[in-house]
Structures are given as C-alpha cells and as structure tokens.
Amino acid sequence: AQKVTQAQTEISVVEKEDVTLDCVYETRDTTYYLFWYKQPPSGELVFLIRRNSFDEQNEISGRYSWNFQKSTSSFNFTITASQVVDSAVYFCALKFGAGNNRKLIWGLGTSLAVNP
Amino acid sequence: ETGVTQTPRHLVMGMTNKKSLKCEQHLGHNAMYWYKQSAKKPLELMFVYNFKEQTENNSVPSRFSPECPNSSHLFLHLHTLQPEDSALYLCASSQDTRSSHEQYFGPGTRLTVT
Fold first, then answer.
1. Could you give the residue ranges of the DSSP H alpha helices within chain A?
2. Confidence class of residue A57 from pLDDT cuts 50, 70 and 90?
3. Which of A42, A44, A47 sits opposite B102 (nearest CB)?
4. Which of A69, B41, B87, B114 is most buried, by CB atoms within 10 Å?
5. Average pLDDT rounded to a whole number, residues B9-30
6. By the 8 A CB rule, do B23 and B106 touch?
C-alpha cells in the first residue's frame, strides 16, 4: 500500500526553537518522489522541496533542512531558529507510479504554531 | 507574480444557487487539478485535466462540473450543493500529469453552503 504518515498533528514551539516535522511513507515502487508543502493561514499551498528516491543527499535551504532516509522510509523537515512567520500547516506528499498511472498522495499535515 | 490565481476567494451560496469557481495559471503548464480541503481530512483530489482532456474524476458528485477550455483555465461549476460541500477548493497546475514535477497551487476559494 502507498501511504504517507505525519504522526504529529500539532506542534507548538517558542520562537527561535528548532523544530522537526516527521514524515514516514510507504511505497512498493523503487522510483518515487517526495514533497513538502507549506500552507499558511491564507490558504495557498506553497511548494518547498521535491526529492527523488535516488537522491538521499540531505538538503539545506536557509533555515530549512530536509533529512531523507530510505532505510527508515522517512523524509523529515527541520526548521532551525523558528520564526512566527513559520506558523502554518505543513504537508508531506508522495508521488509514485509511472506514465499515466502516476499518483500523488498526501499526509494529513502538521500544524505548527510558533509563538513569540 | 502569482502563478495560479483563483476567483472568488470567498463564496457563500444557498443550496439552490448556481455558481462557478475560476482558476487561471500563468506558468505554461499543461495539467490542472481541482482539490477539496475539509477540516481534519486529507486533501481530496477531485478532477484532473491534462492537455485540456479530463483524465481523472474521483467519484465526485455530479453537482460539481468541471470545465477546461484551454490549458490555462479551469472552472468548477456548482449547482444544488449540500452543506457538507462547504470547504476550501484549491486549484493546482503542473507541467503535465506524467512528469515527476511538483504542483503549484492557487490561494483557494473558501466555499460556504447555507
């Protein structure tokens, strides 16, 4: 079965704390893609990152970093020195299949509140 | 520059009304999507269009009727909706449905059915 699990429903931190959002996925495919999106209160889902299954290199973009580990089927997202503007719902997604059978499935999201 | 736009941003309609949601993408993409987002539920894919052809309809009730006149525009026509249809309706686009690329989303239309 193909599945994305974001076990943390809600997280609350104080500004400047580091926070890690977990994403665990299941797929039988050997080629697949993982995504993170941010949904601020305004509603729009903002694309953050795409990672393909053959690239386990971790990525850092400013205060954001991603840790992809195939051994544990996880693609975790860390925000360093969190800020109030990071408050949002964060979604992890998995794209699998090929050609006309390519599908995208979503986790339920983690709501992050960063308090001043 | 906003890649995907949606209008209106908010809509309140009665169960007997007919309304339409509009989506426009300025990214040169060939695939467009309608999603429904309700509280405490996963994002639900409703319809997919690829090169103007509908490729997916995920058992959506016929009171929702999509239209894709070209690769840049997507509409969702609404009629005789139910209160449980109240949700955030998101439009997205991507290069095409076969690629591995990400989808880009509009700001959504917050729909309330009274």
1. none
2. confident
3. A47
4. B87
5. 95
6. yes
- How close, in Å, is residue A46 to chain B by CA atoms? 7
Q: Using one digit for the tens of pLDDT, what is the confidence trace for B23-38?
A: 999 999 999 999 999 9
Residues of B in Cβ contact (< 8 Å) with A33: 100
List own/partner pairs for B44-50 with CB under 8 A and 24 or more apart.
Answer: B45/A104, B46/B76, B47/B76, B48/B97, B49/B74, B50/B96, B50/B97, B50/B98
Least Cα distance to A22 among A115, A108, A116, A113 occurs for A108
**Smallest Cβ distance to A43: which of B41, B101, B107?**
B107
Count the alpha carbons within 13 Å of A60 in the hemisphere toward its beta carbon. Answer: 3
CA atoms within 13 A of residue A3's CA, in its CB half-sphere: 6
How far apart (Å, rounded) are the C-alpha atoms in residues B4 and B25?
4
The tens digit of pLDDT for each residue in A63-95 reads: 999 999 999 999 999 999 999 999 999 999 999
The full length of chain A comes to 116
Question: For residue A36, which residues of chain B lie inside 8 Å, CB to CB?
Answer: none
